[in-house]
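Structure catalogue
Derive tokens from sequence
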Amino acid sequence: ACECSDGTSITIGPDVTIKSGATVTFKAPRVTIKSGFKAEEGATVRIRRE
């Protein structure tokens, strides 16, 4: 499992792929997902705005 956090914002992508079996949590007040972001089947992606 991986957790990425920031006190202001996180931008994900482009060209980011979360592989099958991975668990990733993104935590920030503002999370932006760019075109080209992919999560393979079997991946768990959590986005928490806090």
Q: What stands out?
A: The longest strand covers residues 23-27. The beta strands are 2-5, 9-12, 17-18, 23-27, 30-33, 38-39, 44-48. Residues 18 and 39 are 5 Å apart (CA to CA). The chain has one domain: 2-48.
